[in-house]
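Annex B.
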Amino acid sequence: MTGQALSRIEHAIDGRHPARSILRLLDLHRGKVLAAVAFFTVKDTPLWLLPVITAAIIDVVVAGGPVSTLWIWAGVAVVALAQNYPNHVQYTRLFMGAVREIGADLRNALAARLQALSIGFHSRANSAVVQTKVVRDVENVEVMLQQAAHPLLSATMVLIGAVVMTAINVPAFLPVYALAIPLAVLLRAILNRRSAMRNASFRREVEQFSARVGEMATLLPITRAHGLEQTAVTRVAHGAEGVRAAGFQLDLLNGRFASLSWVSLQLLGVGCLVLAAWVSITGLIPITPGQVVLLSSYFALLTGAATNLLMLLPIIARGTESIRSIGEVMQDPDLERNEGKRPVTDVRGDLALEGVGYRYDDGRSDAAGGRGDTGARPIRPALSGLDLDIRAGETIAFVGSSGSGKSTLLNLVLGFLRPTSGRVLLDGVDMAELDLRTFRSFVSVVPQESVLFEGSIRENIVYGLGDVDDDRVLDALRDANALEVVDAQPDGWHTVVGERGARLSGGQRQRLSIARALVRDPRVLLLDEATSALDPESEAKIKVALEHLMRGRTTLVVAHRLSTIRSADRIVVLEQGRIVEIGSHAELIAAGGRYAELDRVQSA
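ABC transporter: predicted structure tokens.
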């Protein structure tokens, strides 16, 4: 999706005004929608024309002729009915095509917005709930447009046709039609508020249930290993019960309203028929038998159309609630701001931290650089007053106890977080002035747990790079000590690794992750506990691979195992968000400080 198209969708969606949002979405496809309405107007002609034909034929029968008039009206009816098929096909092609494009636009816009939202947003959001918004809520909007458009347009055409033909034939009867409008408005007002509340409650229950199911899938190995299957089933069952109860209450409300609407409007239709017959019999207004049928038919069509529209209110309510849900993502302000900033075209790899501090507010990280909720209760700073110069090609390791700020520091260098005080410099330029998306094309990250998608080994290694020469991939695999992993697979590097690389061991996944980093030839490399979860044999192989990966690159390493970082140019010891020691392994051991204490503990 282009930036311009994304901007149009973002402008169209306003979670506070769902109806306005729907009109704006349709306006984005104005040409197709207007053409579809034109075809609908023509194809729906029989709906309001057939009562006229019926009334005319009845009057011919009552008058006893002439027969030729019957054939004229019959011909008009055939033509009116025959044109319905081609025009209906054109209407469907245009309008449903526009609806499907709106659905695709919404999904693409949500995906683009999720990529633009900060890491802070994603740390707060549940992935299953986000998935529900992209899949279920967009589908609800599509269903609403598909199912509501036809009855709404049909009711409009019937109303216009009925009013015009009645004004021509029996103008004195026009005020009777007005009775249907306040009744329909009253019925809608009765339902509207309660329906909105019930739909909001049902939506929240579905999102919570999706979160429970996602949690169950993630924890399945832990659940099975500890014999907690029944506990997991019970947690999901509790969520399913919430969905059932909320859905049942919504169904009851819709059922009561559907019956009330149908009975009220049918009684109004019967009343119209009796009134027309009484007026004709008493001679109060000169009305022919055919005109009695005409009036009764039109009123039946109007009440039927109103009933259909009122029956659609639950679908419309569900669709508007989904617009609100989509708006929660599209209007979330926690964005990583890169527009208009200087693009990074070359990176030497010099990094500097000048008085850098970072504070999480109420568990919320704000990668957009803005302030959190002013009422949030601040906690201890994650980092405070960090000053550090890192030269291009240097390997810097960060150690310290859990919660000392190591991972926060890496996220600051990546630009996932913005300093709340001080600044981070890249090659002498404040990173706040740079388009960090362009900077990250020069960066590779090897996390503690490598992330692979369900594709082939080769697709995982060259992810996002387009066409990559086979020799370049082979070199990356060789330097990552991963050729043996590929050779052991039945289809070589075309072997599908399964969801999250489930068909490979942890060490194999990590070596492929290193190959993915190597093939990008990064200038800056971030290693976050890259060997901590591995057995000694896998760790030894990955150490060799990391030596190839780190050579000539600015490398920042976070590690708990001090044995893995002894060759680092400098080791930075962090405690409570502050630098307490800097030096080589030998220098820090000789100093006998915090690092020496950690080394003694691990060596014991």
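Residues 351-369+377-603 form a domain with the Rossmann fold fold (CATH 3.40.50.300). Strands lie at 351-358, 383-390, 395-399, 421-426, 429-430, 443-446, 524-528, 554-558, 570-575, 578-583. Further annotation is deferred to the next reporting cycle.
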